UniProtKB/TrEMBL annotation:
It holds the Pfam family GAF_2. This is GAF domain-containing protein. GO terms for molecular function: cyclic-guanylate-specific phosphodiesterase activity. Residues 351-475 form the GGDEF domain. Gene3D superfamilies: 3.30.450.40, 3.30.70.270. NCBIfam families: GGDEF. InterPro entries: Cyclic-di-GMP_PDE-like, GAF, GAF-like_dom_sf, GGDEF_dom, Nucleotide_cyclase, Rev_trsase/Diguanyl_cyclase. PROSITE patterns: GGDEF.
Length: 475
């Protein structure tokens, strides 16, 4: 592999690891006073490939002149002032790292920016500094004819870049654990591998998936500070045991069966400085694993942390969409997406269930007359009132903009009719207060019962809503 190819792979790997919007390598022009981009990986269509940056000009030139990193967190300026974009890109953070020769001469500058994160963490800066050092080494030797050693040292970078991306794009947590135990031998040679999970960073941990071990870890737990894995988790640092010297080492738990491994590696999986798991490697031959392997696997674990963040963000976003943004109550979408589970919980043989819809018919005029704050406060009061007035077990949903749906279980129809009458009396004979304003509420109520009116959740909810609004509604 030629050095230019290695530098391209390093740029790709650095960009994927940092989840950067643009990653670029600037090198000194022939005059030795100007920096020009020679390689880049960018999602922007306005990246300026023809830019020339003088020493000391802007953050990039400043990094080259001072031989120090330039970090712009909470980036609020116009990205076009960086000179590398032809237009503003709404960046959130920017990082420039100098590439130095062993005697301190400037060879170039590595730049990364982000539209997702407002800061480059200390750990990520350290990882990127490692990339910058590797690029500097190759720039220094770029014009030499001897490439044999480079071919032997760096063949795994293409595989590491591709595999890290494969890990980072895991759609769900089970997929992530299965992908993590498939580390290619081109990246690291090993005899056994295991993925350990700490649920939201809490002990005890458990082995999610493994290959190469002769025993089952289903009932095994990992305790903080105990064994190789527990120690790695407690210290939040990689641990390498190059030669166990035929000692019986505890990898996961004292109850595990001895395994014939002489070389071990444990690397933590971290998300926002919080430990989420670990990746364990084992080899039967001594001196098979070392600190360089730990650095290599740390990049994969960083991709795993990014995958966890994306999966949890997507899951939380989907959950938030199922909640009413004003009251926090589950909404119509929640009923649709969890229909089978709710139906199995509510509609049971020999047990009645009742669907009571309450529509606030003059809610739009309250919003129009008194404002959104007043209307929102009133809706939150309604949720509180229904939660207290309706006997348990029950569900309370925000069914539509002005309609609530109460699902009552283990009650007779007569009991629910009595509740309906009490609610009518409350609405007809009482004033409600929100934002120190007295409000009169006009309501319509509708009731549907299981199994008398039907045996389908969607039908019953729509029937109750239809009886309240004098229309028929369904999912």
């Amino acid at each position: 592999m030629k050095n230019p190819d290695i530098l391209t792979h390093l740029i790709e790997l650095a960009g994927n690891t940092a989840n950067a919007y643009t990653t670029a390598l600037f090198q000194l022009d022939i005059d030795g006073k100007t920096l020009v981009p020679t390689r880049h990986l960018s999602l922007s269509k306005s990246f300026n490939e023809n830019v020339r940056i003088g020493m000391g000009q802007g953050p990039i030139g400043k990094s080259a002149l001072t031989r120090n990193a330039v970090i712009l967190d909470q980036f609020e300026g116009d990205a076009s002032n960086l000179k590398i974009y032809k237009s503003d890109e709404n960046l959130k953070s920017f990082l420039a790292l100098p590439l130095l020769s062993p005697d301190g001469n400037i060879l170039g500058v590595l730049t990364l920016d982000s539209k997702e994160s407002y800061v480059f963490s200390q750990k990520l800066q350290k990882i990127m500094t490692g990339f910058a050092e590797q690029m500097a080494w190759h720039l220094l030797h770029e014009e030499t004819a001897v490439t044999v050693d480079a071919d032997r040292s760096w063949p795994f970078f293409k595989e590491l870049s591709a595999y890290s991306r494969f890990v980072a794009e895991s759609p769900q947590l089970p997929d992530l654990s299965q992908r993590l135990i498939q580390v290619p031998p081109e990246i690291l040679k090993y005899d056994a591998i295991a993925v350990v999970e700490l649920d939201e960073g809490r002990f005890p941990g458990r082995v999610l998936a493994h290959r190469g071990f002769s025993q089952d870890f289903e009932n095994l737990t990992i305790e903080e500070g105990k064994g190789l894995t527990g120690s790695c988790a407690k210290n939040n640092q990689p641990i390498v045991i190059s030669d166990a010297e035929d000692r019986e080492l505890t990898i996961f738990n004292e109850d595990e069966e001895p395994e014939p491994f002489q070389s071990l590696l444990a690397v933590p999986i971290v998300l926002r400085d919080a430990l989420r798991g670990a990746l364990i490697f084992a080899c039967q031959e001594p001196d098979s694993l070392d600190a360089d392997d730990a650095d290599r696997i740390s990049i994969i674990c960083a991709s795993a942390g990014a995958a966890i963040y994306c999966i949890e963000t997507r899951r939380n976003w989907q959950y938030d969409r199922s909640l009413d943004q004003i009251t926090g109550a589950p909404n119509h979408r929640f009923l649709i997406e969890h229909r089978e589970a709710i139906q199995g919980e509510i509609l049971k043989e020999n047990q009645e269930a009742h669907f009571l819809a309450v529509q606030l018919t003059n809610l739009p005029s309250i919003y129009e007359t008194h404002g959104t704050d007043c209307g929102d406060q009133l809706l939150r009061q309604m949720i509180s009132m229904f939660s207290k007035a309706a006997p348990s077990p029950k569900y309370v949903f925000k069914y539509s903009d002005n309609t609530f749906l109460l699902i009552l279980m283990e009650r007779t129809r007569e009991e629910v009719l009595s509740l309906e009458a009490r609610l009518r009396h409350v609405f007809e004979n009482n004033q409600f207060y929100a934002q120190s304003k007295s409000l009169s509420l006009k309501t319509d109520l509708g009731l549907a019962s299981y199994p008398a009116d039907g045996k389908d959740l969607a039908l019953l909810a729509g029937l109750a809503y239809g009886r309240a609004t004098q229309t028929f509604a369904s999912f």
